[in-house]
Amino acid sequence: MSSDDLFGAAADARVRLPLAARMRPRTLDEVAGQSRATAVGSPLRRLVEPIAEQGVTPASVVLWGPPGCGKTTIASIVANAPGRRFIELSAVSAGIKDVRAAIDSARHFLGADGSETVLFVDEVHRFSKTQQDALLPAVENRWVTLIAATTENPAFSVVTPLLSRSLVVTLEPLADEVVSQVLQDALVDERGLRNALTVDSEVLSQLVRLASGDARRALTALEASAGAAQDRGSVVIEHTDVERAVDRALAHYDRAGDQHYDVISAFIKSIRGSDVDAALHYLARMVDAGEDPRFIARRLVILASEDIGMADPSALGIAVAAADAVAFIGMPEGRIPLAQAVIALALAPKSNATIVAIDAAIADVQAGLGGAVPKHLRDNHGGQIVGGSEYVYPHNLSAGIAAQQYLPDELIARQYYEPGSMGNESALSDRLNKIRQILSGSPRPKEQK
User: Of 137, 171, 438, 443, which sits with the fewest C-beta atoms within 10 Å of its C-beta?
Assistant: First the structure.
């Protein structure tokens, strides 16, 4: 096939359906990256099996997953299954009248010839409570088999009565290797670009990175990049074609390479150095490159204790809350709590006293400096330990602190935690000195190190 023929084939493809629509899987076996949800015997399999082979009406399902993971694709596969009528509604545009009209139609055909209807509601979380409640009788009485798709957690976005009458099927974000295979298939498939263009591994990785686990976005970017390559008379999609097609510069960032470690290192050091602007820049680079937000959140949790610690004890709570928020709402919205945490941690007073303290204590333990637990601290419920009754209950004292020994004899002079002078630790330092004086019975000099 000549170059002109190649361009002619691709051009012919471009005037038809979008590439993402042309490459939409036709069977559950073709659905990429969702082997658990589409396994034999799963609720989704029952929706596409011939009715005669089941004997019972399949259960309604709520498809929960991020954009581009296959929710609409699965609905389209069900739509083409034999023996069932299919009605599609979008919660973005449909109203209560549309819902009732769909249910009335389903009841009519069920009574007329026994035809079963599958009702697909896309973005069901956008339906109001009243609109969702309108679906209840139809689902309860099996007038329809409902497929409700949502990117939001169904436990919070779908009313409880509807949720209890349906099975929740969780679809996973597509792994990079899955998206890469989807793109490679589109390049060679007769429904796709039919080998009209080629892409090297580096550009393919860029397309995968841009997709952030969204197969539809990946195919759309590939199609636009192919058009950009053809416009300049080439059969090879290059880096500049991708940039021109998506109207943005592609950051050089490889999640498995040196850039991954360099950027995360700069990110942490910028927060530690209290440069909030630099920290936000590196966060933006990672978010834009599709870095796993859970990885970013985990590093923030570590930093909150390692580099801030007791200088601002709330830092750890902020970091953990950001991690929980990212897990709860996903991306791209997760960038907002991540940014909030980054700003709070960058501006917080800094202290490494916590990590210094625990590492010093561990070093002593590993060096064999342990010793016996003082007798008055041992478990003495049976009263068998001589001297065990000498323990003084601190709450019985007005100061709430008893002048007694807690460390083993071998470590009696050890002071692991030394507060810094920043933030909350400046106040802790005074309190700690008073506590240590009471515990020892007199001021105790610091151990020479």
Answer: 443
Q: Residue type at 20?
A: A
Q: How many residues does the chain have?
A: 449
Output the tens digit of pLDDT for each of the chain's 449 residues: 444 454 445 445 444 689 988 999 999 999 999 999 999 888 888 888 765 454 566 789 999 988 888 998 998 898 887 778 899 999 988 999 999 999 999 999 988 888 889 999 999 999 999 999 999 999 999 899 999 999 888 988 899 999 999 999 999 888 889 999 999 999 999 999 999 999 988 889 888 888 878 888 899 999 999 998 998 899 999 988 888 887 655 555 555 555 667 888 999 999 999 999 999 999 998 888 778 888 899 999 999 999 999 999 999 999 999 999 998 888 889 999 999 999 999 999 999 999 999 998 999 888 888 888 888 888 766 555 555 567 888 888 878 888 888 888 888 888 888 888 888 888 888 888 888 888 877 434 444 34
Reference 322, options 294, 341, 302; nearest CA is 341
175-246 folds as: Helicase, Ruva Protein; domain 3 (1.10.8)
pTM of the model: 0.56
Rg (CA), the chain: 31
Look up residue 36 and give its two tokens: 């658990």
Rounded Cα distance between 233 and 35, Å, is: 40
Q: How far is CA 393 from CA 10, 162, 322, in A?
A: 83, 55, 39
- Give the side-chain half-sphere CA count within 13 A for 158: 28
Residue extent(s) of CATH 1.20.272.10 domains in the chain: 258-347
Q: Measured between alpha carbons, how far is 232 from 202 in angstroms, rounded to an integer?
A: 20
Domain span(s) for CATH 3.40.50.300 in the chain:
34-170
**Domain 258-347, CATH number (from 3.40.1360.10, 2.40.50.100, 1.20.272.10, 2.60.40.640):** 1.20.272.10
Q: How many CA atoms lie within 13 A of 6 on its CB side?
A: 17
CATH of 34-170, one of 3.40.47.10, 3.90.1170.20, 3.10.310.40, 3.40.50.300: 3.40.50.300
Contact call for residues 22 and 192 (beta carbons, < 8 A) = yes
User: What are 152-159's contacts with CB under 8 Å, separation 24+?
Assistant: 152/64, 152/125, 153/64, 153/328, 154/62, 154/64, 157/124, 157/125, 158/62, 158/124, 158/125, 158/132, 159/129, 159/132, 159/133
3-state SS assignment for residue 120: strand
